[in-house]
């Protein structure tokens, strides 16, 4: 059995390959010591492959040898495989790993280059949501955000131009959270939650669009657990990308790219 583990800032992603096929699992990074005990107890005879920011911590505490790889290389290997499986045939693209934080990469079929990062990511989504509304649970944030109205919080271009012709589409956000002091209405918890998701989605998409432009491609691939069952965020990413004539792809199981690619 081969086990690939991507131990990130928030979640430990695990890919298990055995004769029956492939299984994916995830654990909160706060339970890292429990995961280590389980590996020492039940998986010492298996081949373990590690990557991610907390890989070294795990390797130090295991009482058997493992293979480690650099997070960005492992993620690219896994992503390449997942793109192929999803019949997404891209020869030139940018990809964004929206994890706790976000990292940006430009890629061809055979290689990738990390071109930057942003502290705005999934940790921003959960942290800011919690500060504003007391709701920090990822799934609950998304569920409640579905009933929210961004117009109560965000300032759109058409708000500023007030019905007159604007040089850019009126539906674009002019200022995330910028309508709070303008709007007569108060913003509900739901409105605030969808605005937080909008802030993260639009920040990473704006960066992706610029990077794609500079790399002469329209293809932007998004991975990372922040997008997991997160229709609210992916809808915003797709709509914004479309407005800018770029093509966004969210890869199925993309959050397991690192775990899968660690197995080499
Ligand atoms: P990094 O790569 O930045 O070190 P990571 O690998 O842990 O972090 P991901 O697992 O890709 O990052 O994404 C973490 C984000 O996914 C969280 O910040 C949160 O927004 C979201 N998320 C999705 N499911 C969960 C969950 N069950 N528990 C906590 N966060 C979740
Ligand atoms: Mg990660």
TrEMBL record:
Picking any one GO molecular function of the record gives: pantothenate kinase activity
Instruction: Please indicate if the UniProt record lists Phosphoprotein as a keyword.
Output: no
GO cellular component terms listed in the entry, alphabetical order: cytosol
Q: Name one GO biological process term.
A: coenzyme A biosynthetic process
The organism's superkingdom is given as Bacteria
- Keywords attached to this entry: ATP-binding, Coenzyme A biosynthesis, Cytoplasm, Kinase, Nucleotide-binding, Transferase
Q: Which Pfam families match?
A: Fumble (PF03630)
Spell out the protein name for this chain. Pantothenate kinase
- Organism in which the protein naturally occurs: Jeotgalicoccus halotolerans
- Highest lineage ranks of the organism? Bacteria, Bacillati, Bacillota, Bacilli, Bacillales
């Amino acid at each position: 059995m081969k086990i690939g583990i991507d131990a990130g800032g928030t979640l430990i992603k695990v890919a298990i390959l055995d004769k029956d096929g492939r299984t994916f699992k995830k654990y909160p990074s706060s339970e890292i010591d429990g995961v280590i005990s389980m590996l020492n107890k039940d998986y010492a005879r298996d081949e373990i492959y590690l990557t991610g920011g907390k890989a070294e911590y795990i390797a130090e505490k295991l009482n058997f040898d493992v293979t480690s790889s650099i997070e960005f290389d492992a993620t690219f290997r896994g992503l390449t495989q997942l793109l192929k499986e999803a019949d997404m045939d891209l020869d030139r693209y940018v990809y964004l790993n929206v994890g706790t934080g976000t990292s940006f990469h430009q890629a061809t079929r055979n290689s990738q280059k990390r071109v930057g990062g942003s502290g705005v990511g999934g940790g921003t989504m959960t942290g800011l949501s919690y500060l504003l509304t007391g709701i920090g649970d990822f799934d609950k944030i998304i569920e409640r955000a579905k009933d929210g109205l961004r117009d109560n919080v965000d300032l759109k271009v058409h708000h500023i131009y007030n019905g007159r012709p604007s040089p850019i589409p009126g539906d674009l956000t002019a200022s995330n959270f910028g309508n709070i002091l303008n709007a007569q209405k108060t913003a509900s918890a739901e409105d605030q939650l969808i605005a937080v998701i909008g802030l993260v989605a639009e920040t990473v998409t704006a960066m992706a669009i610029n990077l794609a432009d500079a790399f002469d491609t329209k293809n932007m691939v998004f991975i990372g657990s922040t997008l997991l069952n997160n229709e609210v965020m992916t809808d915003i990413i797709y709509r914004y990308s479309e407005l800018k004539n770029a093509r966004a792809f969210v890869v199925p199981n993309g959050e397991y790219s690192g775990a899968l690619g660690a197995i080499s």
